[in-house]
Amino acid sequence: MTDNITPDEVLDTIGLNCPLPILKAKKALKGMDNGKILELASSDPGAVKDFEAFCRATGNILLKSWVDDGVYMFLIERVV
User: Fold this and answer.
1) Which pLDDT belongs to residue 1?
2) Which domains does the chain have, with CATH numbers?
3) What is the pTM of this model?
4) Alpha carbons 52 and 55: distance in angstroms, whole number
5) CB atoms < 10 A from the CB of 9, how many?
């Protein structure tokens, strides 16, 4: 399951508001190989819906999202 996934890259977008977390994730994922995992941290509450929509639109996989002490965390697998 996703609980044991080790990310290949970690991206901290804490303090950034929409659309910057999405733009930074898009750039990071573009530089990664298929099957690699990006872990992203965001302080923007809108990021939950934003990353769900982003993954649907791009075909990448949102493996997991959770909140850790007020920080919104995401694991995204690059597939396209």
Assistant:
1) 44
2) 2-77 (3.30.110.40)
3) 0.92
4) 5
5) 15
